[in-house]
Amino acid sequence: MKEEKPDPRLAAIGEKIKRLRVTKGYSSYESFAFDHGLPRVGYGRHEKGANLTMSSLLRILDIHGVGLAEFFSDLEG
């Protein structure tokens, strides 16, 4: 069975999500997820570059008050 390599664009999205969390003053993704009613395990995977649904991304961006255009403006891929 061939193992697929992770998509580097997903990793970049995960890093951006993590930066937004840290900017809000949260050192722990678990605390952030708990405080905002997000599933902790799923949120942690998103920060590590796991595939996420558009609705999950939109929910995270709404929490941060960031629009799609702003979020993707400095991502390369």
Automatic annotation (TrEMBL):
Protein origin, superkingdom: Bacteria
Protein name: HTH cro/C1-type domain-containing protein
Organism: Nibribacter koreensis
Lineage: Bacteria, Pseudomonadati, Bacteroidota, Cytophagia, Cytophagales
